[in-house]
Amino acid sequence: MDAKRSDSDREAGFEVGDDFRRFSQKDDIFCRSFWDPEVRSDRSDMFYETYRTPRMTWRPVDGFTQRDYALRNASWHVTDIFAELKGGEDRREGFLDPYTVGRDGPGSAAAVESPGEAARQVKHAARALGADLVGITGCDERWMYTHAYSRETETEKPQEVPAGLGNVIVIAQSMDRELLRTAPSALSGAATGATYSRDTIVLLAIEQYITNLGYRALASMNDSALVIPLAIKAGLGEYGRHGLLITRDFGPRVRLGKVFTDMPLAHDRPVRFGVKETCDICRACTDACPAKAIADAEPSTLVHNRSNIRGIRKWTTDAERCFRFWANQNTDCAICVRVCPYNRDFGRRGSRAWRWLAGTRLRRLALWLDRKSGRGRRLAPSRWWKAASQG
Amino acid sequence: MDAKRSDSDREAGFEVGDDFRRFSQKDDIFCRSFWDPEVRSDRSDMFYETYRTPRMTWRPVDGFTQRDYALRNASWHVTDIFAELKGGEDRREGFLDPYTVGRDGPGSAAAVESPGEAARQVKHAARALGADLVGITGCDERWMYTHAYSRETETEKPQEVPAGLGNVIVIAQSMDRELLRTAPSALSGAATGATYSRDTIVLLAIEQYITNLGYRALASMNDSALVIPLAIKAGLGEYGRHGLLITRDFGPRVRLGKVFTDMPLAHDRPVRFGVKETCDICRACTDACPAKAIADAEPSTLVHNRSNIRGIRKWTTDAERCFRFWANQNTDCAICVRVCPYNRDFGRRGSRAWRWLAGTRLRRLALWLDRKSGRGRRLAPSRWWKAASQG
Fold first, then answer.
1. N or C: less crowded end of chain B, CB within 10 Å?
2. In this predicted structure, what is the pLDDT of residue A54?
3. Minimal C-alpha gap between A292 and chain B (Å)
4. Would you place residue B390 in the very low, low, confident or very high pLDDT band (cuts 50, 70, 90)?
5. Before A252, cis peptide (omega within 30)?
6. B75 closest CB neighbour out of A54, A190, A205
7. For the complex shown, is ipTM > 0.85?
C-alpha cells in the first residue's frame, strides 16, 4: 500500500515527507479572518461587508465603482443563497459544509458494467450537465480536512464526509477571461462569483445524477478537502508556482469542485504537459504579486504560517500576505491568474502552438514571446465596460 | 399611441385583431393538467411522478431507462429547489410565480448616462453573468398574464408584476444539441432541465445586478407573461411554424427568461432573417409531430382550445395534443426542435452558409439540402451514451 501510494505520488509529482500533517479548515485563511486576531482586522471586516452591503461607492477608483460592485455581488448571488440556506443550522454549504439539498435515491443501485464504463458515462453526463472538465480519482484521506469549521462557535467541528465514499469526481469550471483581464478590481471578482454559481449547480446536478442511480454521493465545493491535490490526481492539470492548478484547456483560469461517491469508478491518471518545467524558470506571478506572497525559490517544505499544510515539498504561497492585499483593496485579487502565461484562450490555434512550445526545451522562447506579446497586461475596468459587445 | 403600437406590431410581424383577449396562466396546458379533467389523466399524473420518484425503470425502451431518467431528473434539480423553496407560501417560483430571493438594493438609483448606454452595459453584464442572448423591449400588457395560477387552490390568483416596471430584459439560453438529437426520450429532457437551471441562475444574477444599481427588478422564467412575443420584440428571433422562437444563433434550441425593471433602457428592434418565408414553405415540424399538433396551413386566427390565446393571426399549436403525447411517453418531447432546419450549430461555417441561403429566394434549395443531409434524424439514446467524449 505504501509503495503503491508512493508510486502514485511520484506520478502526480507529490513529495510528501514523514512530517506531513493533515490540515484543519480552521486554519484556512478565510476561517482565520474570523477567529484569529492575527488575520482579522477592520479592513477584513470591511472586505466582507462589501459583499453584503449595497452602497453607492466603496472606492472612487476605476474598477471599484458602483457598477463594478453591483456586478460582482450579483455574480455571487446564487452561491450566497445556497451558502445561507441552512445558516440557522450552523451550515455554510459550499464553503464550510458540503451540500445537503439532494433528493433521495431509489434505494437500490443500478448495476455497473465495469468501473471504466461507469466512469466514462459519469463524465459524459457531467459534461452534459455543464461541467467544463471532469476527472476521477480515489478519495485520499491526506487531503481531507481533519475538521470542518463552525462559524457559530468559531472553532472546529467534525468532518462530515462519511466513510465509504471512496471515489471523488473532480470538476473544473472555466472563468471569464475578459473579466479577469481587469484584475485587480471588484469587476474581476465577478468572474469568481459567476463561476462559483455555475460550479454549484453542476455539482448539485452530478450529485443528484449519481443518487438517482442508487449510489451515495456528496457534493462539495470549498469545504471538506483540499481539492488541488485531488484535481492533480484526477488528471485535470499540474501544480503551478502560484499554488494554483494549471489545466491544459483553461490554464489557471478555473474554479474547482468535487463529488464524493461510493459508485465504482475507474480512476484517471495525472497529466504532464510541461508546467513544472515552465514554472521552474518563470516568475511572472512572483514578480507581479503586489503582496510578495508567491514563491521565488525552488519547491521546499517552507511553511509561512499556520495556513500552510506541513510536510510537502512544493511552491507555497503566503496566504496571510495574499489575504491582507484582498482586504486592503476590498475585493479578491487574481493578478497571478491574469499574468500566468498559461492564461490563454486555447480555442485559438496560436495559444495551442504556444502551449506546445512551452512543453519543449524551447520554453524560454515561449516565455519571452509571452512577455513581448503583452498578453498579461491589465485591461482598465472602464474599458471592459466600453468593450463593443455582440449578442 | 395606437398607431405607434400598430407600427411596432407590423415590424415584429404581429397581427393582433380586435377580438384579442389576454391570457390567464390558468389556461396554460400545464396548469390545466392539474385542474381540468379534460387534460388531467392517470397518464399525466404518472408523467409528473417520473420527475419526482426515483425508480429503477419506467419503460423498458432505449432512452427511457434508469440512467436516462437519472440524468433528466438531475438536470432539473436546481430549478426544482428554487421552485419548491417557497412551496409553503403557495409559490412555485420560476414556473407559476416570479422569483423572490433577491437581496435589497442600496436605496437610491445610480445615474444613467443615457438609456442607450445603460442598455449596452446591462447586456454586457448579462452576458458576463452567463446569458447567451440578451434583448430589451418595453413591457406590453397584452403579453402579461391576466392572472397567475395557484396550485393550492387550483384557481386564479392576482398577477404579481408591479406597475411601473416598464422594461423587460429578455434572455435566451441555448440547449444542448447532442441531447436533443435523441428526442423523443427521457434523455433529451436533460437538455430542458439543464437549460432551465442555467436560466434560473442567470435571471437571478441579472435581477440582483439591477437591484444593486438601485433600480427595481423582478426575475421571471415561465410565470407572469408570454415570453415569445416579448423575445421577438426584443430582437432575439422570429416566430416559427412550431410556435417556438427561432433565433439566429441557436435556431429554436433555446429556453427563455425575462427580468422586468424600471431602469431606463433603450429598446431593441425585431430582427428578420427569413424565418417566416422559410416556415411558409417548410413542413418539417408539422410532418414529424407524432401528435399532429402543429399547423399545416397558413397563419390564421384558429383556436384549438382554451390553451390558445385569442385574436392573433399566427401558426397555432394544439397544446392538448402536444401534452397528451408527453404524458403518454412519460417525458417532454422536442421532436419539432430536433427536425427544425434552423436547429444547427451556427459556430460552423456550413451552418452559417445554410442560414444565408435560407434567407434568399433559394430557400427551397436550402430545405432540400437539409433533408438530404440527414441532419434532423434521431440519434439512438444508447448511442449518445456510447459517444466518445473528450475533455
1. N
2. 76
3. 30
4. very low
5. no
6. A205
7. yes
